[in-house]
């Protein structure tokens, strides 16, 4: 992936915009598959050209910081025009964004979905490759673009839950694993969801926290008396929630056990669903051991596909923590991932400090550093898998 801007010919611009306008911009940019900075650039250019000087004022009260990157020099030109038109710079940016929104209407309404939420799992039995960070970032980006998104911590280690500053579910309380195994007498799975607050994704993002009982899930699924429960358990448990969400994103554990089987089965292409609507995203590193790990995962997907006669879409790789300074091993390994072709490389995410900082302060990345390169990478992956 290229950097979201070339520092050589873009400059950072900060304006104060109301949350509603920022949100509308992010949603629309995602809908029409455009980078936010490109949308604002087009808006500013169109606004400068527009003859109607007395554009309706955009309400900018209660605005908070919004940063983007414009081609060098464009902001100075905008500022000159603002002075000439007797309005503030904030108002100039706000009107430019409003103009772009008006010229790029939403392609919605989308056809009614008949197959429940779109399901995207992030899996790789290799540990520490970025399943948790990328699934969390992509879920935030999906939510930011207006999709009701449920993020599931399906790893008994509970890293995702802890990163959001939530406690794990108590081992004696109802949990996803207990719902999957039919061990919950009272209460619905929906009772366990917690809203993730902050950022422009607020009100659209929910977390199903982890519980340590999931360490026993593989063993319990293995001994289940019911036919096919091993594969269908996750789907059965999540079915009642599906109509409340547009996307269900699953952060898988680093394993190839039955938990992984049930997650892979859950993201299969359902009857009536087109290929690539749901599926698996595979975060990898740019090194040889990642390629070996992928071979094993692919074998498991193929076995499951053949045994159960289902289709699984591999949506793509995310080559994470990429650092070209590591030399030939990194660059040649990246080439190998790109050469696979199908599935494609969805993004190359550099080794960056923002992710680790967000974890340290227990904040979602897109709230902690909404305009960092990694946040932009998450938005770009979200656009590719939701397009
Ligand atoms: N692009 C990145 N740049 C810098 N640090 C990163 C990046 N992506 C992930 N990390 C950090 O690397 C560590 C491992 O990432 P993460 O927990 O997402 O991997 P994982 O595959 O989910 O691991 P596990 O297999 O244990 O579940 C974390 O500390 C995370 O904050
Ligand atoms: Mg993880």
Features:
globular; binds magnesium ion; two-stranded antiparallel sheet; single chain; Arc Repressor Mutant; eight-stranded mixed beta sheet; 387 residues; alpha/beta; binds adenosine-5'-triphosphate; disordered N terminus; Rossmann fold; 2 domains
Description:
It is a single chain. With 387 residues, the protein is an alpha/beta fold. It folds into two domains: 10-103, Orthogonal Bundle (Arc Repressor Mutant), CATH 1.10.1220; 118-386, Rossmann fold. It has 15 helices and ten strands. The protein has helices spanning 19-31, 36-49, 74-85, 89-103, 131-144, 159-163, 176-180, 217-222, 229-238, 258-266, 288-308, 328-340, 353-360, 365-368, 373-386, and strands at 10-17, 64-71, 118-122, 149-153, 194-195, 205-208, 247-251, 279-284, 314-322, 345-350. The strands form two sheets. An eight-stranded mixed sheet has the order 5-6-4-7-3-8-9-10, sandwiched between helices. Strands 1-2 form a two-stranded antiparallel sheet. Helix 1 (19-31) runs parallel beside helix 4 (89-103), helix 3 (74-85) crosses helix 4 (89-103) and helix 9 (229-238) crosses helix 10. Residues 1-5 have low confidence and may be disordered. Bound molecules: adenosine-5'-triphosphate (ATP) and magnesium ion.
